[in-house]
Amino acid sequence: MASLPSSMPHPAPLPADWFGAVSQIWWSAQGAQWQALSAWQQAAAAMQQEWWDEWAARWAGGVPLGD
Prior knowledge:
The chain has one helix spanning about 20-60. It is about 65% helix and about 0% strand. By secondary structure, it is mostly helical.
């Protein structure tokens, strides 16, 4: 088997706790995704509440008695 030429850089060794480092990155990304989903759901719920309030005021004859 041929050895690497001396001008090529050698790959860096993996850290001792590489699994922990990868897990931390993965959990951080997962948390960011959950926060984005939660923000989207809250915006959708607010929009639906606004639509309901407008519908109730227009077609139900008055101000809605919401939360």
